[in-house]
Design brief:
CATH architecture of the domain at 6-129: 3-Layer(aba) Sandwich
CATH topology of the domain at 6-129: Aminopeptidase
Number of helices: 4
Distance between the termini: 25 Å
Order of helices and strands: EEHHEEEHEHEEE
Low-confidence stretches: none
Radius of gyration: 15 Å
CATH superfamily of the domain at 6-129: Gcn5-related N-acetyltransferase (GNAT)
Strand order of the largest sheet: 5-4-3-2-1-9
């Protein structure tokens, strides 16, 4: 989906922004992260190349039901967030997934910042009223990132937690200055 919105903010006194990722914004570090972290990236079963990931992002640009955004800090792409089923109707609800591929930024609160920024983007750019996410049960850091910004667990099965956020419950992290 082609959108031009950008969310600028500071987190831990660092300038950061979330913006729709273009094919030209795909970096080698992003691709390397995809290939390194396939445990939680079930939608990425094949080894990615720079060209294949650029083509993947180009396909998302042309799809009205999906968007992929990048999170930049200090001018460097450090993470991505994807939105799916954005034109959902009836019982379907849009979903998001996040990926912090720059390991330097893990374990510092950037996950909750990425979830918040992506949800803020979807609510304000697209008028989304609720968002869902699923993650493997062993991915506790991801689950925590979602819970800290207002998501609630709505169900679970043997492998996954399923969470949902109502737009009115979105909580901006305390450390974020926007």
């Amino acid at each position: 989906m082609k959108l031009s919105g950008q969310i600028e903010f500071k987190f831990k006194n660092m300038e950061a922004y979330l913006h729709v990722l273009s094919p030209q914004g795909v970096t080698r570090e992003y691709v390397d992260g995809l290939n390194r972290e396939r445990l939680f990236l079930e939608t990425k079963p094949d080894t990615a190349s720079l060209a294949s990931q650029m083509e993947y992002v180009r396909g998302i640009e042309e799809d009205s039901a999906r968007v992929i955004c990048g999170l930049w800090c200090g001018g460097e792409l450090i993470a991505t967030a994807g939105g799916q089923r954005l034109n959902a109707a009836g019982a379907e609800v849009p979903t998001i997934g996040i990926f912090i591929f720059n390991e330097t930024f893990r374990g510092q609160g950037w996950g909750k910042v990425l979830v918040w920024a992506m949800c803020h983007f979807l609510v304000n750019e697209l008028g989304v009223a609720s968002v869902q996410a699923a993650m493997k049960k062993e991915n506790l850091s991801s689950k925590g990132s979602f819970l800290r910004v207002g998501f609630e667990v709505i169900s679970q099965d043997a492998l996954y937690h399923y969470l949902e956020l109502k737009a009115k419950n979105l909580v901006q992290p305390d450390e974020v200055v926007s």
